[in-house]
Amino acid sequence: MDRLLPLIVAVPLLGAAVLVGAGRRMPRLAAETVACACAAASTALACAALARATTVVSWAGGWRPRHGVSGGIVLVGDRIGLGLAALASVLVLAVLAYSWRYFEEPPRGHSGAFPALVLLFQAGMCGFALTGDLFDAFVFFELMGVCGYALTGYHVEESRPVQGALAFGFVNSLGSYATLMGIALLYARTGELGMAAIGRQLDAAPERDALVAAAFVLVMTGLLVKAAAVPFHFWLPDAHAVAPTPVCLVLSGVMVETGVYGVARVHTTVFGGPGGIPAAGTRRVLVVLGVVSAVTGAVMCWQQRHIKRLLAFSTVGHTGLFLVGVGLLTDEGLSGTCLYVLGHAGAKAALFACTGILLARLGSVDEHELHGRGRDIRGIGLLFALGGLALAGLPPFGTGLGKAVVEEGSAWLPALFGLVSALTGGAALRVAARVFLGTGERGREEEPETAGGEEEPETAGGEEEPETGRRIRLAPPPMVSVAVALLAGALAVGTVPALAEATYAASSAFLDHAGYAATVLGGRAGGGQPGHAAAAHGGAWWTWTGAALGLLSAALAVVLAAAAVVGLVPSRGWSAPLRRLHSGHIGDYVAWTTAGIGLLSLLTLW
Amino acid sequence: MREALDDTLVAASLLLVAAAATAAALTRDPARQAVVLSLLALALALALLFTVLQAPDVALSQLAVGSAVTPLMILLTVRRVRRRRRRE
Amino acid sequence: MTRRARLWVLAAGLLGTAALFAAACLRMPPFGGTWHPYGDRAVAAAIAQRTANTVSSVNFDQRALDTLGEESILFAAVLGTVVLLRRTPDERRVAPQPASVPPALRRYAITVLPLALLIGLYVVAHGQLSPGGGFQGGVVVATALHLLYIGVDHRALERVRPVGLYELADGVGEGAYVVLGAAGLLAGSAYLANTLPHGTFNTLASGGTVPLLNAAVGMEVASAVVVLLARFLAQALEIVDEKTVDEKEEKEKE
Questions:
Q1: Residue C93, by phi and psi: left (phi above 0), alpha (psi -120 to 50) or beta?
Q2: Whole-number Cα distances in Å, C220 to A231, C171, C238
Q3: 3-state secondary structure of A233
Q4: How many CB atoms lie within 10 A of CB B22?
Q5: CA distance C146 to B64
Q6: Cα A481 from chain centroid (whole Å)
């Protein structure tokens, strides 16, 4: 298995090469079959590696370390990295199944272009999840980005997808430059590029000086941009609202989370030792940014009527929660976050899948315009509502379990997690009630606010074109079954004790700075056997308080949604300044990104 | 003596790059920016800098991409955009 | 945000970043020192693998996985461009007008073209020996072909440039790298391992898989750049909005 680990990345790349090379001669059915086969093969490899008890370490080219040093690149398949690769692969499979004949007409002569881009995207995410080399991580990070920009702008006939892709590309490229500069600083100090090797060199002569701090800030900037932490988050709603709906499944479900994973991975392997950044500094950075992102995302989510934009802001909110969970730097915090990410991926992707059906059938994603028009597809409405409840943390969904486990970390956490869950879940439930049940008044056509003279009218979502080319009458079975399967996955995360136990063991192994270096550079078997740590701890599983808090936030979400539908809670108007910041102006986003670097330095050096 | 010469060369090429990049940023007309600055000043200055820093591989890439492909792409884009604008 | 507010936010951010970066740079090892742990290791490894150009040894042997990623980035970027610059239903294709080129320019382009092509191929083939390799040589080859556009016109270029063939070569180049990597696995070693005989130091037949990977990258890069520029050329010269065509036709009728 050790030697086969790189194939998780290589197989999708080969698939993409075949699709491009033979693209002109390949019928569409063959192209989509090849893509699915490659994605499935990669998924199977990742799952097979996950089934092994120990961490899989694979040196590309066979450049194993001699006397603890190597010039080569290492792929490290620990439980969490492999788990993320598997999650990304599963979601890519879901996207390919969902978009099976979804687009009316692929680009002329390029029937394989869309699946090929999705496969390259998968390779980028898997490579990023598995690599144990900082520069290699940057390379795959860029691959992920390039595919993301192209997929976001897929509908070039309209101007907004191009605009969204441009914002995505600009802000992410800025983040990447920062990361590259940080890597250069670390290389100048240590002469190493491997994460474990850099960490070891930093620890060998601990100097917690400006160079280490600057490297930390710069490397983190790129990762936090991808993780859409405030104030680096502006690109996300613009991009996710306009990307083709199948692509949103991956963007919101796993790509943003890879940013959080990168933050955690780089912190523990590179900066986690005595020569890195003090734990208190990292905790302050992540928790502060996480709380601000969570609140901003949740508040903005509540205000949206463009359903895809609403879901995108909920991703900002939940990613904020993930950052808080990771930022606690405890086994419980990390394992809870992992479960939360898994559950969220299922729930959020299912919500996007339902939105795609709405768009294909009714030609709009505007909550007000769609009022009551979903009455005849109540089944989809049920799925949408379940997705909303999952977002709100209803037991026994995986989101609820993850939330419950993280919340035990500190007394103030339940309030934050409850608020964000209730607002985001409530917003989704409000949409479900209005669209599928037709309850409440049909939203009045309010005058779009124009403040400051340069603001665009509010994004409503009524002018979206159905992506299927023509409107469909019945939701095709693949689309519906993908949504059902994703929700079932979210449910399974919260109901399979073995998964939670394995996650807990994997998390303690993940946070072991010295253990990681010993596994990678010294060849020590590692990976945290489920059983040792978890048995002593009892694992991270439902507690009565956790379940009660989950029920409470779900109930709060229902109450909020009901109150909004009957008009008791104003859904907009009370936070105009915050909304005005999300202006769609790329210059603003660039300014905020640089300001964010300054903010990060302040928080790190405090 | 040699080191002093090396340092002078590095400093001179760095200054050249800084000057060319500033000029490129200050040129408002995209076509001129592409041709004059990418082709003549910035691409060559960067290639020179990389050569002086003993990275001929990178200098070669810079020369090939920076002085030919990038300006051509910018020029073609400008042409397409101008054509559309003229129509409107 | 108003322009003023934006500039203030930007200035604050840039100032903070610059201060941080400057402080970090002051703590860097001095420029031009003799302590190069990675470089020393890379040179020793390159000589052991009989690859005269250490940079190529790093790119295509010691860190070959990075290069696979980088090649894939170009591959993905070009594919993305093909998708984004596709002809949409409301656009039409028109034949571009033949252009007149000054004879001197034409003579220059026709003379330089074979020379540039040869240099490009040389740079690809000698990647394991001297500066250059697949990336650089590939771009030179692609640029050389476009001298036809400058020296003659777009139609002459189109005759030697069946885009479909270059797309095939693009895919083959990318696929060949992946498959060459897997050959290392089949030979019983690791993915992307240099399992071929290393040959004689400082000759064309040296470096094991390095020249082969260079050739794969050269093929991919050359065809990718051709495909990329083809999309840009098509957008700039051939593709017009329906409206423009209608207006033209109306004018002709009048």
A1: beta
A2: 39, 7, 26
A3: coil
A4: 11
A5: 13
A6: 22
Tens-digit pLDDT string for chain B (88 aa):
677 888 899 999 999 999 888 888 888 887 777 776 666 788 889 999 999 998 999 998 888 888 888 888 888 888 888 877 766 6
Q: Give A400's contacts (C-beta < 8 A, 6+ positions apart).
A: A343, A390, A393, A394, A494, A546, A547, A550, A554
Residue C82 lies in a domain: yes
Q: Is residue C53 part of a domain?
A: yes
CA distances from A334 to A261, A326, A470, A517 (A): 10, 5, 45, 19
Do the beta carbons of residue C217 and residue C133 sit within 8 Å?
yes
Q: Are A479 and A356 in contact (CB under 8 A)?
A: yes
CB A269 within 8 A of CB A516: yes
Closest CA to A435 of A483, A396, A387: A387
Tokens 């199948």 -> residue: A246
- Structural domain contains residue C176: yes
Mean pLDDT calculated for residue range A11-34: 89
Nearest CB to B57: which of C132, C233, C240? C132
Domain that holds residue C57: 36-253
Structure ipTM: 0.93
* Nearest by Cα to C241 from C97, C11, C18, C87: C87
pLDDT reported for residue C166? 92
Which residues of B touch chain C, with CB atoms under 8 Å apart?
3, 6, 56-57, 59-61, 64-65, 68-69, 72-73, 76-77, 79-80, 83-84, 87
Structural domain spans, chain A: 1-131, 154-273+578-606, 278-443+460-494+542-567
pLDDT at residue A541, rounded to an integer: 83
Chains C and B share 3 or more Cβ pairs within 8 Å: yes
User: Between B24 and A192, whose confidence is greater?
Assistant: A192
Closest CA to A228 of A301, A313, A353: A313
Tokens read off for A244 = 């083709």
pLDDT, tens digit (0-9, with 9 covering 90-100), for A93-144: 999 999 876 666 666 667 788 999 999 999 999 999 999 999 999 999 999 9
Q: How far is C186 from chain B (nearest CA, A)?
A: 32
Q: Do A113 and C45 touch (CB under 8 A)?
A: no
Distance from CA of A196 to the nearest CA of C (A): 15
CB A312 within 8 A of CB A252: yes
End-to-end CA distance of chain B: 63
Q: Compute the distance between CA of residue A327 and CA of residue A600 in angstroms, rounded to an integer.
A: 14
Residue C250 pLDDT more than 60? no
Report the C-alpha gap between A39 and A226 in whole angstroms: 23
- Against chain C, the chains showing at least 3 CB pairs within 8 Å are A, B
Contact (CB, 8 A) for A172 and A225: yes
Q: Are A507 and A338 in contact (CB under 8 A)?
A: yes
What is the average pLDDT across A575-579?
79
Q: Tell me the residue range of the domain where B79 lies.
A: 2-87
C-beta atoms of B79 and C228 within 8 A: no
Q: Quick check: A457 pLDDT over 50?
A: no
Each residue of C9-47: b (16+ CB within 10 Å) or e?
A: bbeebeebbeebbebbeebeeeeeeeeeebeebbeebbe
* Partner residue opposite A211 with nearest CB, options C24, C79, C86: C24
Number of folded domains in chain B?
1
Q: How far is C107 from chain A (nearest CA, A)?
A: 35
For residue range A32-66, list pLDDT tens digits in order: 899 999 999 999 999 999 988 788 999 999 899 98
Structural domain count of chain C:
1
Q: Is A316 left (phi over 0), alpha (psi -120 to 50) or beta?
A: alpha
pLDDT for residue C188: 86
One-letter amino acid identity for A140?
F
Q: Is residue A16 scored above 50 in pLDDT? A: yes
